[in-house]
Design brief:
Elements: H1 15-26, H2 30-38, H3 43-61, H4 67-87, E1 88-94, E2 106-109, H5 116-127, E3 133-138, H6 145-152, E4 156-159, H7 165-184, E5 189-193, H8 208-216, H9 225-231, E6 234-241, H10 247-260, H11 269-279, E7 283-289, H12 300-314, H13 319-329, H14 343-348, H15 355-375
Parallel strand pairs: 1-7, 2-5, 2-6, 3-4, 3-5
Antiparallel strand pairs: 6-7
Helix pairs in contact: 2-3, 4-5, 7-8, 8-12, 10-15, 12-15, 13-15
Length: 378
């Protein structure tokens, strides 16, 4: 694999890692910003933790010579355990027995949070003694050099968006080659969301275009579509949050699309949503690894259908999901599933919203139940 062909979109390697670490160490607000992200809302604790980080982080950065080092020492070593303690009741995972540490995978998951989906997947892999993965992210998140460095030091693959049609096609070809060559030749795992943009309504559907993209640059090579799918070892991954910190914002976006046919994001809106997702309470969070797709598939739609089926079955449904389902569908089916949920407190989150917005948000919690029941034929 000629890595120079992909240098602008690939995670940092070699000297680029060292240069990025140097920029981060020189960035005057790095540690205070990280403390603010992790301990927002507690000024005294933020200042105290910022002081602690000034002692703890720089020696760790001195040990970083690859994005693998950065993820293990900094992201999974400091940031994610802190996020877990401060904004989750517990973090759990299952299905890791389906994986072999010597096999590279293409992880395709539902998409609920801008950065935590993949970060927590990597966290689960590390806890399972598995190699970490690279992650595909849109260049709309790379708003400055600092965020670019942070993403690429965490294994970020840049997906270029909003290109002219001809450039978009050639870039898709290059991304296709990068994905397949990384998995087949470099033996590196990659994560990609099942569709562009987070799910706003709790309905997780894989966009077949992502699967078609994989085969795009290999049509003329002689390998069949089915054989290529087997070669990249697709593993569906289901990510389940008890509470979504951005649920109301997502609902507002859906309402705007209904009213105006479109939604225009404000400047830095993705960054604000990203920070909200990191900071605010998520309750119980669970990741489930499905089984590798090894069947014979004729087209991308069939692959997408199997990914969806495994994600739906793999949901770890929470009391919030069951309660929202009963509230919208009928009051008696799953009452035992949310006996310990403070339903008044849950609904108080949506006090003051219009009925339409409130129902949209509640449907985002109820829809995973609907999809799992359908997948199980219940």
């Amino acid at each position: 694999m000629n890595t120079e062909l992909y240098r602008d979109i690939a995670p940092y390697e070699g000297q680029d890692v060292l240069d990025a670490v140097g920029r981060i160490k020189a960035y005057p607000k790095f540690l205070s910003n990280m403390a603010e992200v992790l301990y927002s809302g507690n000024i005294i604790k933020t200042k105290w933790k910022s002081h602690q980080m000034k002692e703890m982080i720089p020696p760790l950065l001195d040990q970083v010579s690859s994005y693998d080092d950065f993820q293990r020492l900094i992201t999974a070593g400091v940031f994610l355990p802190t996020i877990e303690r401060n904004s989750m009741r517990k973090f759990t995972f299952s299905g890791q027995h389906h994986l072999d540490r010597h096999t590279p995978y293409l992880f395709i998951s539902n998409h609920r949070d801008i950065v935590l989906d993949c970060a927590l997947l990597d966290y689960a892999l590390i806890k399972s003694n598995m190699p970490i993965c690279e992650m595909a992210i849109g260049d709309n998140l790379l708003v400055n050099q600092f965020t670019t460095d942070m993403f690429k030091l965490n294994g970020g693959i840049t997906v270029k968006r909003n290109l002219p049609l001809r450039e978009q096609y050639s870039e898709s070809l290059r991304l296709s080659r990068y994905f397949v060559e990384s998995i087949k030749e470099e033996k590196k795992s990659i994560w990609v969301a099942q569709k562009s943009g987070r799910s706003k309504d709790g309905i997780d559907k894989t966009n077949p275009a992502i699967i078609k993209m994989l085969y795009l640059s290999y049509k003329s090579s002689g390998i069949s579509f089915s054989d290529l799918i087997k070669a990249v070892n697709i593993v569906p991954v289901a990510i389940s949050y008890q509470y979504d910190p951005n649920d109301i914002n997502k609902g507002r976006e859906e309402v705007s699309k209904k009213l105006h046919g479109t939604y225009k994001k404000k400047k830095y809106e993705d960054l604000v949503n990203m920070l909200r997702g990191l900071r605010r309470y998520k309750g119980d969070v669970h990741i489930h690894f499905g089984k590798v797709l090894k069947g014979d598939y004729d087209n991308a739609a069939q692959v997408a259908e199997e990914i969806d089926r495994q994600i739906y079955i793999g949901y770890h449904l929470h009391d919030t999901n069951y309660y929202a389902y009963d509230l919208l569908q009928g009051p008696t089916r799953f009452t035992e599933k949310y006996e310990s949920l403070n339903t008044k407190h849950f609904l108080s989150r949506y006090k003051g919203l219009t009925d339409e917005l409130r129902n949209l948000v509640l449907r985002s919690y109820a829809n995973p139940v609907v999809m799992q029941l359908e997948a199980l034929g219940m």
